[in-house]
């Protein structure tokens, strides 16, 4: 939506340069509102992605730790059984 509104704003106004056309498009209220909506959605996605990646990292850590501890308890049990 942002790109469509920006293009409509640029096409709706006559400007001498590309820079002036872009400035006019950014000055349009609908383009600013669409840009704000886009940035909010982007921030939400990044927040969700960070939470997901952190949970995945902790899951891998917990799996490794459980594997390490259960494997160690088998060795400790065998050693204690054969010593006096």
What keywords describe this structure?
mainly alpha; 3 helices; rod-shaped; Integrase
Structure description:
With 84 residues, the chain is an all-alpha fold. The chain has one domain (2-82). It contains three helices and no strands. The chain has helices spanning 2-12, 18-27, 29-82. α1 (2-12) packs across α2 and α1 (2-12) packs antiparallel against α3 (29-82). The longest helix has 54 residues, at 29-82. The model has no long low-confidence stretch (mean pLDDT 84). It comes from Streptosporangium brasiliense. This is Integrase.
Mean pLDDT, rounded to whole units? 84
Q: Pick out the low-confidence regions.
A: none
Terminal-residue CA separation: 77 Å
> Roughly what fraction of the amino acids lie in strands?
under 5%
Which structural class should the secondary elements be placed in?
mainly alpha
**Helix/strand order:** HHH
What portion of residues is helical? over 70%
Total strands: the figure is 0
The domain tally reads: 1
Radius of gyration: 29 Å
Count of individual helical segments: 3
Shape: rod-shaped
Major beta-sheet overview? none
Organism: Streptosporangium brasiliense
Protein name: Integrase
